[in-house]
Design brief:
By secondary structure, the protein is an alpha/beta fold. The chain has 20 helices and 30 strands. Helix 5 packs across helix 6 and helix 7 crosses helix 8. The longest helix is centred in the last third of the chain and has 15 residues. The radius of gyration is 29 Å and the shape is globular. The structure holds adenosine-5'-diphosphate and zinc ion (ZN). Adenosine-5'-diphosphate binds next to helix 8. InterPro entries: DEAD/DEAH_box_helicase_dom, Helicase_ATP-bd, Helicase_C-like, P-loop_NTPase, PriA, PriA_3primeBD, PriA_3primeBD_sf, PriA_C. This is Replication restart protein PriA.
Length: 723
């Protein structure tokens, strides 16, 4: 009987398609193949093979593709991801299957050149320069050689034709050298050693349960990284592979150097900035087992590890782990699932765990390993509030007198201060004082943010930008456009006036010059070569600035009033993280927090240094409201170019929602950001009791409802992180 293969294609398709397996081709589940799809050829992955009678009238598989096969645990992860997020199975597969693009393919055949030892027949000055560089006999890429010699590429080509240079294949360097688990290391403290033993002793979970997940909790600076490095070392000693997930922003040179300090070499890294050829080589190295440790952003979760033995999710509470477009998945939750399929332990590390992980640790689903206090007995920063109702800044200023004094004292002591404001740009709103016009994005329901450095008004949703006009575009009045409220650039201006002779840097994702320049700048801050750092959440996390002793939070209330059920948790985590930057070096640190509501439970918990109190209150509040993890949430976002049609579609869906007991459907309501990139958004919110299979409910509901037509779209977000 002919064999039939079910091939899953990495496109937005729900099911695998059947193809005939031609004679002489033996396929197994997980193999990557090429198949015809309509008029073209595409790649896919064998999801199953069977002997079946109907094979005759199916189109045949074209052939096998040279790419690492998808292991069974990875295929299970794809199935699970699709089922959980209700994304098409092919879209879930696309996360795990990124084949080389054409540019990368071309690079495969890259050759280099070196001196052949024969003289050039026609010596010229330019040729002489090239040969002088090539005289060392090293192999270089053609353009690298031309650049180094300061001549054009044609000179190099001429020398090749002439025989004075010879072409050789460039041998690629290994993507990563093997980490040495027994590299000499700093001794661990007793508490760290005990925590490390706990992690290493973690049992491997069986696929049916979540045992094997550990919450590693300890305040910032408690030494968690060193502890999970031990688990990574043990995993490598065992000949298995380890994956360390980090929010992309925390993947700094500083961290990679720390890794190198512990393991002798830097790890292989994986993030959106890693390009074509290198991506493929890392994937291949991971699949062959040659790469033993990967440190990567959330997409690293879908790499084809051959022998995964450990997953660490650092800063597990970070909302950056949630992918908010395409397949809406949470990398922390998916890590726990992958750990189950791979039968390997998963360590979730955080100073401020998510409520979900805390509840799982309390209920015993996860094991809880804690580190007490900071490493070396360093004190946590002393945190005090500045009540802005009493200590008002001058008009048009944003630093209160006590804040200014504290910065002064810090600088006088030769120490560093960080002023934290989670707002990019100069001012979040521009208003015409003559006519009242406010500058709004033309594609989104957002105010345009002034960026003075770029001399532009910019939308932070869609990137739309316009030049800041001289006169109001509505009424024509000159000199009436007024920036309202502060962004980090405006704080920098104020600080520069107050401290004219001090070195001030502004660090936000707008930092000019790209990621590499930003990385360098972070290093100069760490080295103490700057006095005042003014930054957004970019500086709040993961960095170690040993000279920093004062953290000033300029607006602690920003995140508290969003109406989002996670607002309290987010704000608490962010403020804990940023105040925790102070005093990580020799000298003790302190934090001052400007707030209009010092009695707000989040602020009060922060000031008391009593995280336990925050967790207790927040967990009982969630339980009482039936919010996650005590109940479940899912959102349907209906969007379209015409407001009325999007709303009408939402209403039509609501009419057939027909929620069973334990399920509540709210809306459609205008999403908090109603207009984004020219699309109007309406939200239906599904709130269920904990035991309900929300995916089945959503699937049935959407099958009953009208299908979106034209430019309408319905996106599904199970476990939405923010509203
Ligand atoms: P966390 O990850 O909990 O924020 P880190 O692992 O970054 O904490 O440790 C905080 C600081 O203490 C770092 O500067 C680190 O180098 C130092 N440190 C941690 N453990 C040790 C140790 N055993 N010996 C010496 N220094 C340590
Ligand atoms: Zn916009």
């Amino acid at each position: 009987m002919p064999a039939v293969a079910d091939i899953l294609i990495p496109l937005a398709l729900d099911t695998a398609y059947s193809y005939a397996v031609p004679h002489g081709l033996t396929l197994a589940a997980g193999d990557v193949v090429q198949v015809p799809l309509g008029p073209r050829e595409t790649i896919g992955v064998v999801w199953g093979v069977e002997e079946r009678a109907s094979g005759g009238n199916l189109r045949p598989v074209t052939g096998r593709v040279e790419a690492p096969p998808l292991s069974e645990p990875l295929r299970k992860l794809v199935d699970w991801l699709a089922r959980y997020t209700l994304a098409p199975k092919g879209s879930a597969l696309a996360m795990a299957l990124r084949l080389p693009d054409e540019a990368a393919q071309r690079e495969t055949s890259r050759i280099g050149v070196r001196a052949s030892g024969r003289p050039a027949s026609r010596p010229t000055t330019a040729r002489g320069k090239v040969l002088a560089v090539a005289a060392d006999g090293a192999v270089r890429g053609k353009s690298a050689l031309a650049k180094e010699a300061g001549v054009s590429l044609s000179v190099v080509d001429g020398l090749i034709d002439d025989g004075a240079l010879e072409a050789v294949a460039l041998v690629p360097e290994p993507v990563a050298l093997p980490p040495d688990p027994d590299h000499p290391r700093v001794p661990l403290s007793e508490a760290q050693a005990e925590a490390a033993r706990d992690l290493i002793a973690a049992p491997s979970p069986s696929p049916a349960e979540t045992g094997g997940t550990i919450l590693l909790e300890g305040v910032t600076g408690s030494g968690k990284t060193e502890v999970y490095f031990e688990a990574v070392a043990e995993c490598v000693r065992d000949g298995r592979q380890a994956l360390v997930l980090m929010p992309e922003i925390a993947l700094t040179a500083q961290f990679l150097d720390r890794f190198a300090g512990r393991f002798g070499v830097r790890p292989a890294t994986w993030h959106s900035g890693i390009g074509g050829k290198r991506r493929e080589r890392i994937r291949a190295g991971v699949a062959s087992g040659e790469v033993s440790v990967v440190v990567g952003a959330r997409s690293a979760l879908f790499l084809p590890f051959a022998r995964l033995g450990l997953i660490v999710v650092d800063e597990e509470h970070e909302s950056a782990y949630k992918q908010e477009d395409g397949v809406h998945y949470h990398a922390r939750d998916m890590a726990v699932v992958r750990g189950r399929f791979e039968r390997c332990p998963v360590v979730l590390a955080s100073a401020t765990p998510s409520i979900e992980s805390r509840v799982n640790a309390q209920s015993g689903r996860y094991r809880h390993v804690s580190l007490p206090g900071r490493f070396g007995g360093r004190p946590l920063p002393d945190i005090k509030a500045i009540d802005m109702r009493l200590d008002k800044p001058e008009v048009g200023r944003f630093l209160s007198p006590p804040m200014v004094n504290a910065v002064k004292a810090t600088l006088a002591a030769g120490e560093q201060a960080l002023l934290f404001l989670n707002r990019r740009g100069y001012a979040p709103l521009t208003l015409c004082r003559a006519c009242g016009h406010r500058y709004q994005c033309r594609n989104c329901s957002t105010w345009l943010v002034e960026h003075r450095f770029r001399r532009a008004l910019v939308c932070h949703q869609c990137g739309y930008a316009e030049r800041k006009p001289e006169a109001c575009t509505e009424c024509g009045a000159f000199d009436h456009l007024t920036p309202c409220g502060p962004g980090v650039e405006r704080i920098a201006e104020e600080a520069a006036e107050l401290f004219p002779d001090k070195r001030i840097v502004v660090l936000s994702s707008d930092f000019p010059g790209g990621a590499e320049r930003l990385r360098q700048e972070l290093e100069t801050v760490a080295a103490g070569e700057c006095d005042i750092v003014i930054g957004t959440q970019l500086v709040a996390k993961g960095h170690n600035f040993p000279h920093l002793t004062l953290v000033g939070v300029l607006d602690a209330d920003i995140g508290l009033t969003t109406g989002d059920p996670r607002a309290a948790e987010r704000t608490f985590q962010l403020l804990q993280q940023v105040t925790g930057r102070a005093g990580r070096g020799e000298r003790p640190g302190r934090a001052l927090v400007q707030t209009y509501q010092p009695d707000h439970p989040v602020i009060a918990a922060l000031l008391s240094g009593d995280a336990e109190r925050f967790y207790e209150e927040e967990i009982s509040a969630r339980e009482a409201a039936g919010l996650p993890p005590f109940g479940r949430l899912a959102a349907l976002i209906v969007s379209g170019e015409e407001r009325e049609k999007a709303e009408a579609h939402g209403q039509a869906l609501a009419r057939v929602a027909d929620p069973p007991p334990g399920v509540m459907v709210l809306g459609p309501a205008e999403a908090p950001l109603a207009l984004v990139r020219g699309r109007w958004r309406f939200r239906l919110l599904v709130k269920t009791e904990r035991g309900i299979d929300v995916q089945s409910y959503l699937r049935d509901w959407l099958a009953r409802g009208p299908k979106p037509r034209g430019n309408l779209k319905v996106a599904i977000d199970v476990d939405p992180q923010s509203f």
